[in-house]
Write a structure and sequence with these properties.
InterPro entries: DegT/StrS_aminotransferase, PyrdxlP-dep_Trfase, PyrdxlP-dep_Trfase_major. It holds the Pfam family DegT_DnrJ_EryC1. This protein is 37% helix and 14% strand. It is an alpha/beta fold and 383 residues long. The protein has two domains: 235 residues, 3-Layer(aba) Sandwich (Aspartate Aminotransferase, domain 2), CATH 3.40.640; 139 residues, Aspartate Aminotransferase, domain 1. A hairpin with a 2-residue loop joins strand 7 and strand 8. The two termini are 28 Å apart. The protein binds pyridoxal-5'-phosphate.
């Protein structure tokens, strides 16, 4: 009866618009290794995002892995437990030790006040995440990095198109890493990028993503294969033509949620501040104690209505078996992250969501928000 509504649905342009790109590829017979679509997408993205250099990757995880290699990060890296597992996994894959810092309850991002106490002689870098595309406190983080001589690599997987003080948040830190996975605001099926600020660094990144080749017979580093293919790059160029419409649609969906879900007691919606331009990548809500259902009950009951919200990010990275032995992973060291992980639920938001679909989500959440009150106490709650 009802169609299923997932937490997200990929941005897809009309299929016929993609055919000319494929025809060009078939005639040029260039499929990868920095072909013309790849070069064009790097330039177009740098221009669109307002950044200096873009290096395209086959996915965001390989881009993170390579960013750490590019800066020769060693030892310990201070990061957030409140993220997708790839953030910390790329540290382990590089033989680095993640050190978890607690998060700020208002932005869900690493709390700069918690960083300094975790620095040891082994610390060489900080890897924060602009969670949900909400900018980190970049100035405070940079100040700490400057004092202690640390590198800053932003996992900016959620932060496509986010601007602060009129400039891209991707211009902060030494490097920023984007993901163009199908679930993200801007996708190339799979894909990612590293944003760098000087040509020498871009060049090293580009060598590293192509086995370390710096010429036909010259290999300068033990690189990896993380190149973006021409088909993904071409798709990215087409997506760029649709991205502004998609961002606007996201904003409208966010505004309607904010207007209509305000009627639900016990739900805290994320109210974004107006000192930055957001991309409305996610719609996070906190299911508070005075909501009549637990977060997991709400999640399950929405599922029964074919509404697939997601608990991003639960469980915390620090609770997984490969991390929980770390001193910094102990729940008492991360009280805010643990609280948020228990309360968080991301409701569906994607550019092609219909008014009807969003109406169904809002109506269901509002109905469930009154459920126990009316059943247990038999008093009709007035919205
Ligand atoms: C999606 C995501 C990644 C990984 O990106 P892929 O392109 O899927 O490899 C890394 N970090 C965060 C925070 C993400 O959400």
């Amino acid at each position: 009866m009802n169609n299923k509504i997932f937490v997200t649905s990929p941005l897809l342009p009309p299929l016929e618009e993609f055919i000319p790109y494929l025809e060009k590829m078939w005639s040029s017979r260039t499929l990868t290794n920095g072909g013309s679509f790849h070069q064009e997408l790097e330039a177009s993205l740098a221009d669109y995002l307002g950044v200096k250099y873009v290096s395209l990757f086959s996915n965001g995880t390989l881009a993170l892995l390579t960013a750490l290699q590019a800066l020769r990060v060693t030892g310990e890296v201070i990061t957030t437990p409140y993220s997708f597992v790839a953030t910390s996994h790329t540290l382990l894959w590089n033989g680095l030790t993640p050190v978890f810092a607690d998060i700020d309850p208002l932005t869900f991002n690493i709390d700069p006040e918690k960083i300094e106490a975790l620095i040891t002689p082994q610390t060489t870098a900080i890897m924060p995440v602009h969670c949900y595309g909400i900018p980190c406190q970049v100035d405070k983080i940079q100040q700490i990095a400057d004092i202690y001589g640390l590198r800053v690599i932003y996992d900016a997987a959620h932060a496509f198109g986010v601007k602060s003080n009129g400039t891209s948040v991707l211009n902060n830190g030494d490097l920023s890493v984007l993901s163009f996975h199908a679930t993200k605001v801007f996708n190339t099926f799979e894909g990612g990028a590293i944003i760098s600020h000087d040509l020498k660094t871009k060049q090293r990144i580009d060598y590293l993503k192509n086995f370390g080749f710096a010429g036909e017979t010259k290999v300068v580093a033990p690189g990896i294969n993380a190149k973006m293919s021409e088909v993904s790059a071409a798709f990215g160029l087409l997506q760029l033509k649709h991205i502004d419409r998609a961002l606007l649609a996201r904003e409208q969906i966010y505004q309607r949620y904010m207007r209509e879900l305000a009627l639900a007691t016990g739900l805290s919606c994320y109210q974004f501040a107006d000192d930055y331009e957001w991309n409305y990548a996610y719609f996070p809500v906190l299911v508070e104690e005075h909501f009549p259902l637990s977060r997991d009950e709400l999640y399950e009951m929405l599922k029964e209505e074919d509404i697939y919200a997601r608990r991003y990010f639960y469980p915390l990275i620090s609770s997984f078996s490969m991390y929980r032995h770390l001193d910094s992973a102990a729940p008492q060291e991360l009280p805010v992250a643990n609280q948020i992980a228990e309360k968080i639920l991301c409701l569906p938001i994607f550019p092609d969501m219909t008014n009807e679909e969003q109406g169904r989500i809002i109506e269901t959440v509002l109905r469930l928000s009154q459920r126990k009150c009316s059943e247990d106490v038999n008093v009709q709650q007035v919205a």
